[in-house]
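Sample 1 of the test manifest.
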Amino acid sequence: MLQIRNLHARAGGMDILKGIDLSVEAGEVHAIMGPNGSGKSTLANVLAGRESIEVTQGQVLYEGKDLLAMAPEERAWEGVFLAFQYPVEIPGVSTMYLLKAGLNAIRKHRGEPELDAIEFLAMIKEKVKLVEIEQAFLNRSVNEGFSGGEKKRNEILQMAVLDPALAILDETDSGLDIDALRVVANGVNGLRSAQRSMLVITHYQRLLSYIVPDRVHVLHNGRIVRSGGKELALELEKRGYAWIEQELRRTGAGAAPGA
Amino acid sequence: MATPSAKTLEDLTQREYKYGFVTDIEAETIPRGLNEEIIRVISAKKNEPEFMLEWRLKAFRHWLTMKEPTWANVHYPPIDYQSIIYYSAPKMKKGPNSLDEVDPELLKTYEKLGIPLAEQGRLAGVAVDAVFDSVSVATTFKEKLKELGIIFCSFSEAVLEHPDLVRQYLGSVVPYNDNFFAALNSAVFSDGSFAYIPKGVRCPMELSTYFRINAADTGQFERTLIVADEGSYVSYLEGCTAPRRDTNQLHAAVVELVAHKNATVKYSTVQNWYPGDREGKGGIYNFVTKRGKCVGESSKISWTQVETGSAITWKYPSCILQGDNSVGEFYSVAVTNNRQQADTGTKMIHIGRNTRSTIISKGISAGHGQNTYRGMVKIMKGATEARNYSQCDSLLMSSTCGAHTFPYIEVKNSTARLEHEASTSKIGEDQLFYCRQRGLKPEDAVSMIVNGFCKEVFRELPMEFAVEAQKLLGVSLEGSVG
C-alpha cells in the first residue's frame, strides 16, 4: 500500500526528514510518535503534497505509483487523505459545498457518476452520526468560528465522506478534551477496515488507548529510530522521550546527522 | 516534483481579456480637443434645446477653474485633455426606430459580448440600452415598458422627448460643479440612459445599459439619470467593456438616482473595462461620479458593484439620505490584479431621522494591484437615531499587492449609532492546500475561496448577473496566488 524509502525533505531551509523508511500494508494502522520537532508533521505534509516542503532524496510508492510525482489534488483523487493538525477557515464557503466539490472530483477521477445535491445530502445524513455532529453545522463556513473539537470532528467527518484508502491523521488529538477525544477516536475506529490504511501521528500515547495501532514507530531527528508493537507506545508513555535519546546516545545510533 | 508551483499558478492568471476586439465600423468623429466650440458641436449634433447647451457651457466654464483631484490613492501620468476625442458615433441613418434598423455590425458586436439585443433572446427578461462610444444605438423593450408608463430610453432621446423631466432632475443629485470629472462630464456628455418609473409602478423587468468603448483615443462621457416616483421600484444594471489598446482611455461618467417617497432603486454594476496588460500598459481610466438621493421618506437606494476591470477606478457610489426612514446600501467587490489600481468606496450622508445605511466592501488584490477602500459616513444634526453598519474586508493574493482602508466618520447627532468592522486576510497556501487536499484543482479552489469571500455582495446581484459576476471573478483572478 505505502512504501517510503530513504525519504529526505527540507523545509524553511532546514533538513527535517533525514532518511525515513516505512512500509504500511492495506488495513494496517501505524502510529508515528516522537517529540516536538522530530519531523512528524513534515512527514504527514510531504505525503499529502504540501509545496513548501522540498523532497531532496528518496521515494514514496503508493499502491505501486510514484506518490511524489502527483499534485496534491491527484493524491486526493487516488485516495490519500490528511486530517489537518490546524484545519483552516474558509469564510463564505460551507463545509457542505467544499465536501461535495471534493467528493465529486474524486468520483469523477474514479469514473463514477457525480452525486447531485439530493444524493449527497442523503449520504451526509448517515456520516454525521459517526462524529456526533448536527447536520446544520455543515452549512456553516468551513471551520469558521469552530471550537478546536468541532474542527477535528469536521476533519473526521470529511474523511468519512471522502472514503480514502490512506488516511493520515496529523495530531488529531491535540487540543481535545477527553470527551472530544473519545468522539474523534470512535469516529476513526468506525472507519477502520481491511481496505483502509492509517497513519496516526501523535505526541501522546493517550490517543492510542482508543485507536489501537498495529505498529508504532518513534521518530527522532528526522529518522525512525525504533519500531514495535502497541506496547512500545506504553513504554514511551512510562519512560518519556528522553529514554529514547539516552538509548540512542548509548548505542551511538543515529546521533549526528549523516552518521 | 510535478506539482504546480506558485509560478505556474501565476501563469494561470494571464488569461486573455475576452472583450478586447475592435469593431470595424465607420464612425463620425469630431476633432480632438476641448473648447466651447466643441461643446456647441456636440450639443448641435444632438439637436439639443437651448437649456442643455447653456448648462453644458456653465459646466465647462466652471471646469476650467478646477484642478484635477490628487487625493485618491492612485498614480498615473497627467491626462492631456486636449488630445482626447470627445465625440465618436457609428454612422447610421437617422436614429434607429426599431432593432431592424440597427447596423448588423453593431448587433454582431453586442452578440459577441454576450448581450444579444433581440428581445426574445437570452436576456428576454431584461431591457437593454446599448451605448456604443458616444451614442445609444438601441434600446430594447421600450414599447412594452411604455404601456406601464415607464420611460426607458437614451439620454439624448429623453432630452428631446421629455425635456421637462430632464430639466427638473438633471444635476439635482450631482450638480455640474460637483467635482472635476463631474464638471467635465456635464460639459461634454454625449449620451447615456434615462429611466422614469411612475407612481406606484413596479418595473417588471431589469433595466440595463451596456457601455462599449470602441473608437481609439476617444473618451466616453455618459450620463445616467433614473427617477423613481412615489412607491415605485426599479432594478437597474450596467455592464461595460472596451477593446484592448496600448493607450489609456478616459471614461468619466455621471449617474444620478432619485428615489421619492416609498420608492426603491437598486443599481448594480458589473464593470469590466479593459484593465491594461500585465505591465500596466493601456487600459481604461474609470473616473465616475455616482450618487443617489433618497428624497422622500422611507425610500431606498441600493448600490451593488463588481469592479474587475479598468486600469484605474475612482468611484464612490453614494447615498444622500434626506427623507426620514430612508435607507442607503452599498455592496462592493473590487478586484485589482497585475498593475490595476482602485480607489473606491461610498459616502452615506444621513440627513433625515431614522435613516439607515449599510456598507459591505470586499477588496481583492492580486499581482501588483493596489486596492483602496475610501468611505465616509456623515451624520447631520437632524439625523436623530441614524444608524450605520460598515464592514470592509480585504483579501490579498500575492506579496506584491496592497490593500488600504480609509474610513471617515463625521457625527453631529449624539443619538446616532455606528459600527465599523474591518479585516485583512491573505489567501494562503494553507487554504489552497486544504482545498486541494480535498480534491479540488487549484483554479477551482481559488475561485471557491474568492467567491466565498464575496458571497455577501454577490447575493445582492440580480440572479442573471450573479452567475456572470462569479465567472468574471474567476477569470480575473484565476490562479493569481503568488
